């Protein structure tokens, strides 16, 4: 099934759920809480359920996936899944957590890239997006569903998880840039983290869906530049927004900024 149809159908159902919630009781989903240590046997069973559910959610989308089908594929009772995760939403949250924890963190870059600085690490991460996608597309499909194809209540719990655990290491990455004196000191650290999450995540989603499903994020008559050129432009814009003035940059950093502007 094409990702476009999955995401459009999921977003339509999400909209219907949110409108219906205005006049009815919202479905009760567990708020995000860190996972407590479990007995090894229970942990192993949870792992098998999450692995099977990840494939089902990636193939069918959030709303079309049935817990009964996941249970049947595993040869277990449907109630056993609810016993471990509480609801389909609780199961998807665990699937989403496993997916995003499988992605490299910002600072999981080669030493030479880190030595080149904050914005070179960001550029490396964006360029690597497509390569990591080809290695295993399922986690990225799950992340896209979590970002755009679930209901608003579940999205709230996903946001709480992202804030609590920072799976991408954005906080450490911003502190890295501040320590190197590449980022503005007049912007609050939490705001800097939020700006990076909002902009870089959305830009990565556009790169991913352009690969998985061309045209989904592209408006008619949109940019015709190559992916590489758009990455350079994005980094240059972000550098002008949260980076220190160009006069304060090292020669290599000034060269990269000028390159982004030319592209």
Polypeptide structure, described:
The two termini are about 35 Å apart. This protein has helices spanning about 5-20, 40-60, 65-75, 80-85, 90-100, 110-115, 120-135, 135-150, 150-165, 170-180, 190-210, 225-240, 250-260. The model is unreliable at about 1-30 and about 220-225 (pLDDT under 50). The chain folds into two domains: about 5-95, Homeodomain-like (Arc Repressor Mutant, subunit A); about 100-260, Tetracycline Repressor, domain 2 (Orthogonal Bundle). It is elongated and about 60 Å long. It has about 260 residues and is mostly helical. It is about 70% helix and about 0% strand. The protein is built from 13 helices and no strands. About 30% of the residues are buried.
What is the architecture of the largest domain at the second tier of CATH?
Orthogonal Bundle
Q: Tell me the name of the CATH class of the largest domain.
A: Mainly Alpha
Shape descriptor: elongated
Measured on Cα atoms, how large is the radius of gyration?
A: 20 Å
Helix content: 55-70%
Question: What's the end-to-end separation, in Å?
Answer: 36 Å
The major β-sheet equals:
none
Strand content of the residues, in percent? under 5%
